[in-house]
C-alpha cells in the first residue's frame, strides 16, 4: 500500500483532494511561501468537511527556520490550539543558525504535540549535513520526514533521497515531496522505494470577479496574481493516485 499526502490551504482544496483519493492532508496557510500555520477557522471548517487525517503545519512565517524567542512562543501556542481544534497530526521543524536540527526546541514542540504523530518538514532540506540531520530527526521520534532530497525538486534531489532512505533503514518514513507531478512520480517512487509521497496537485482557478482593478497588487515582491488562485485539482489527485498504484503494484 501507499499513501498520498496533499498539501492544501483552503477548504475547496481539502475537499477536492479527498475526492481525488488523497490519504492525508497537510493543512497550511500561505502556500506561496512554502506553507505557514493555518488559521483555526480554516482547520475547524476543513475538519467539518473531510474525513481523512489532517496534519497541521506549525510555522509562524515564511523564510528561514531560525526562530526568535517570541516566534517560538507563537509556535507553541499554535500547536496547543491546533490540537484542541482536532488536528490529527503535526508538521514542524526548526534549525540552528549553523544549519543543524534544533533538537532542543523541536523536542519541546514534539512533547507538546503528543500523542499526535509528527512529521519533520522541509526545513530538513536546508541543513548542512543531511546524514547527521536524519539521525537527529530519528532520535527526536518523528514518524515521518518530508524532504526533496535537499534540492529544489525531488527529481534533482533523487540521489540524496536514495541515500537517506537506505540510511533510515525503516526507522522513519521518508516522504518525498517538492515538485512531484504526473511525469516524475514513477521515477521518484521507483528510485526511492517510497510508499508515501507529498504533492499539491494544484491547478490555477480564475477569480469570479467581473470588475478588476489591475493597477493594485496586494502581495509582496513576488506579485502573485490578484484575480486567480491555485486549488488542489480532483482530477490531478486522481491521476497521481492511479500512477502510484501502477508503480507500486
From TrEMBL:
**Which Pfam families does this entry report, sorted A to Z?**
CutC
Sorted keywords for this record are: Copper, Cytoplasm, Metal-binding, Nucleus
Q: Which GO terms describe its molecular function?
A: copper ion binding
Location of the protein in the cell: Cytoplasm; Nucleus
* Entry superkingdom: Eukaryota
> InterPro entries under this entry?
CutC-like (IPR005627), CutC-like_dom_sf (IPR036822)
Q: How does it assemble?
A: Homotetramer.
Give the PANTHER family listed for this entry: COPPER HOMEOSTASIS PROTEIN CUTC (PTHR12598), COPPER HOMEOSTASIS PROTEIN CUTC HOMOLOG (PTHR12598:SF0)
Q: Which family does it belong to?
A: Belongs to the CutC family.
- What protein name is recorded for this chain? Copper homeostasis protein cutC homolog
**Organism per entry:** Branchiostoma lanceolatum (Common lancelet)
Amino acid at each position: 500500500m501507499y499513501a498520498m499526502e496533499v498539501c492544501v490551504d483552503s477548504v475547496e482544496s481539502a475537499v477536492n483532494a479527498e475526492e481525488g483519493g488523497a490519504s492525508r492532508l497537510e493543512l497550511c496557510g500561505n502556500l506561496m511561501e512554502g506553507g505557514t500555520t493555518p488559521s483555526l477557522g480554516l482547520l475547524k471548517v476543513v475538519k467539518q468537511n473531510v474525513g481523512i487525517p489532517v496534519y497541521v503545519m506549525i510555522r509562524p512565517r515564511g523564510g528561514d527556520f531560525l526562530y526568535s524567542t517570541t516566534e517560538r512562543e507563537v509556535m507553541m501556542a499554535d500547536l496547543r490550539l491546533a490540537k484542541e481544534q482536532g488536528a490529527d497530526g503535526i508538521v514542524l521543524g526548526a534549525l540552528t543558525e549553523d544549519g543543524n536540527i534544533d533538537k532542543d526546541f523541536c523536542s519541546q514542540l514534539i512533547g507538546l504535540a503528543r500523542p499526535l504523530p509528527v512529521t519533520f518538514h522541509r526545513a530538513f532540506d536546508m541543513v548542512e549535513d543531511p546524514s547527521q540531520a536524519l539521525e537527529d530527526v530519528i532520535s527526536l521520534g518523528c514518524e515521518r520526514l518530508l524532504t526533496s532530497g535537499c534540492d529544489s525538486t525531488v527529481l534533482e534531489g533523487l540521489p540524496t533521497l536514495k541515500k537517506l532512505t537506505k540510511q533510515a533503514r525503516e526507522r522513519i518514513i521518508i516522504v518525498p515531496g517538492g515538485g512531484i507531478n504526473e511525469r516524475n512520480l514513477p521515477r521518484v517512487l521507483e528510485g526511492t522505494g517510497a510508499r508515501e509521497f507529498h504533492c499539491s496537485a494544484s491547478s490555477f482557478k480564475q477569480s469570479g470577479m467581473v470588475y478588476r482593478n489591475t493597477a493594485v497588487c496586494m502581495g509582496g515582491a513576488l506579485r502573485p496574481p490578484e484575480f486567480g488562485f491555485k486549488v488542489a485539482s480532483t482530477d490531478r489527485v486522481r491521476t497521481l493516485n492511479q500512477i502510484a498504484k501502477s508503480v507500486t503494484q
